[in-house]
Amino acid sequence: MKKLIPLFFLIYLVPAVAFAAWWNPLTWFSKATSAPAVNTISRSNVAPASISATSTPSAADLEAEITNLQTQLENALNRIAVLSAASQKAAPAQTAPSRSVSSGISDAAMLAKVGPAIVGLNTATSSGSGVIIDAQGDILTNAHTIWTKDANNNVVGVADQVQVTFSDGSRSTATVIGMDEGDDLAIVELVSKRASSYISPDYGVSAKAGDRVYVLGYPATTADSSLGYGFATATVSQVGSDAITADVGRKPLDNGGALVDAQGGLIGIPHVTSCKILENMSDCLEYTVSAPNVSTIVPKLLAGMMLYKNKVNASAAEVLIQGELQGVYQSFADGSTVDFAVRDVTGDNSFADFDNRLGDDQNGSITRIYLTKLKLAAESMYQAVDFLKSQAYNLNVFLEDEDPSLPSLNSYERQTLTKIQSEIAAKVTKYESKVSLWSSKRNEYDAKIADPSSVSHNYLMEEGAFVENEATYLSAEKQWMLDTFSGENVAIF
User: Fold this and answer.
1) 3-state secondary structure the chain
2) pLDDT tens column, 411-420
3) pTM above 0.90?
């Protein structure tokens, strides 16, 4: 009984203090003739009618009252939880206040600054967003917005005409001047030039993980939870050599557009949007946007590069030229006399060991061995530069013979071939001089072998260093061949 009475007052007082708006201790034990105390949560009488406020309760009455109060308390707590959940669900979405970026520009000011440069693009088969990148009105967009495919889903060309819709609703016509299928980038130029807002590409991309950036699509004013938002803030999560990845709190339009930094500079074109954090297997809480780095690609697209993953409609001239360029590459990739010459005088075969042993050359035996090694190295070098010369000469002749076919190529292909031909012609001259040099060195070392007593140790070490430097030159020339006759230079044909 003594234990039940304190428990009764604890259970009775806590709800009264916590929930009673009429809190007044003097009214808790009012006389029976006064209005019954009402619990503001359950809206029911606190004490059952059988218990008098002035009578001394029995143990059974107290236990019954405790049970009743416990039930009311549980009901009240459950009701609070339900009301709280309903309140959160029904509360209108709060718009985040306009925040300032590191440059001091608010989100609203940034949208006003870069939004007019975002345009809509439409072709006969697709649509998307683009961004004007210069005063001439050149527009950078996703390649998939303007390319055309065949029945086998191969990209075989680009749209003949692109309709451009500007931020003010006006329209114009454009044509495609450059496309890179692999990086999903393209540039279209306006047929009729007009003054337009533009965002200059940031070729010296300085964005780093943690930076705030902006994702824009057309129309930039779109704000639809299902379609996406035309303007959204994001945080850079990764910066690679060829792409930037950013995390976005709300769904972008995912139709191209622009990724700009805090200063309003263009650093990428949104390429792939995916869900980063998924809730309940259906609701995406955070998105990830990947954007190819535009700094190295845009200049080539402006120059007219048309780069396909698998060019299925190449002309006869393109097929012939590509085959010749690939042949040059293969002659160096498979190993050649250049590799043999370099291995012959580097690594474990370098002259360093002989240099260290010259101090013990009491009878000239080390000198004779050294001279023999120089003679063998000269022969290898001669064979290597002669191979380089023959490859460069043959290609130069081929390009000269193919000159009449150049008009059938596009402008970028012609520019690329002209540049290669100019460089190769200079290489031929350089290699011819190297062939003469090593022919002379072979004769020089032969003469020294015939009279080793006239050879100083300084001469040997100087010649050994010279040969090793020439091996470094050979390695660099081989790498130039591999770089020049692979990648974009070959794939464009």
Assistant:
1) CCCHHHHHHHHHHHHHHHHCCCCCHHHCCCCCCCCCCECCCCCCECCCCCCCCCCCCCHHHHHHHHHHHHHHHHHHHHHHHHHHHHHHHHCCCCCCCCCECCCCCEHHHHHHHHHHHEEEEECCCCEEEEEECCCCCCEEECHHHCEEECCCCCEEEECCCEEEECCCCCEEEEEEEEEECCCCEEEEEECCCCCCCCCCECCCCCCCCCCEEEEECCCCCCEECCCEECEEEEEEEEECCCEEEEEECCCECCCECEEECCCCCEEECCCEEEEEEEECCCEEEEEEEEEEECCCCHHHHHCCCEECCCCCCCCHHHHHHHHHHHHHHHHHHCCCHHHHHHHHHCHHHCCHHHHHHHHHCCCCHHHHHHHHHHHHHHHHHHHHHHHHHHHHHHHHHHHHHCHHHHHHCCHHHHHHHHHHHHHHHHHHHHHHHHHHHHHHHHHHHHHHHHCHHHCCHHHHHHHHHHHHHHHHHHHHHHHHHHHHCCCHHHHCC
2) 999 999 999 9
3) no
